[in-house]
Design a protein that fits this description.
The protein is mainly alpha-helical and 110 residues long. The chain has helices at residues 46-62, 72-90, and strands spanning 2-4, 17-19. It has a two-stranded antiparallel sheet with strand order 1-2. 2% of the residues are buried.
Length: 110
């Protein structure tokens, strides 16, 4: 199994892997729990983003009981629900192994 190395500036440009020591199953680098929120750039389908932004804006302005004050209040629970579903389907309900850096762009065809 290969383990990604953390880039000192925290960027996600490519991936560098090094072999794990036998029996070691922990990520390298700093803990991902050091900050509550992390800003990342991701790409959305335009129509999905427009609908989510409209919902967040409306709910924040007119339906405070919904608990949606920003786009993050929609995105975070949705991503968590989907990741939980993927963990159930593909990893016996356990969290996937932590990765501190992902390669940028689309994966190469295999």
């Amino acid at each position: 199994m290969l383990e990604p190395d953390l880039v000192p500036d925290g960027s996600v440009d490519g991936i560098t892997a090094s072999p794990n020591a036998p029996g070691v199953d922990e990520p390298t680098g700093q803990s991902t729990q050091s900050r509550r929120r992390v800003q990342r750039t991701i790409n959305f389908d335009r129509s999905v983003l427009e609908r989510a932004r409209a919902a967040a804006t409306y709910l924040a302005s007119y339906e405070p009981q919904a608990g949606v004050r920003s786009l993050a209040d929609i995105v975070n629970p949705a991503v968590l629900a989907y990741v939980t579903e993927l963990e159930e389907l593909y990893n016996s309900g356990e969290p996937f192994r932590p990765v501190l850096r992902m390669p940028s762009g689309r994966p190469a065809n295999r």
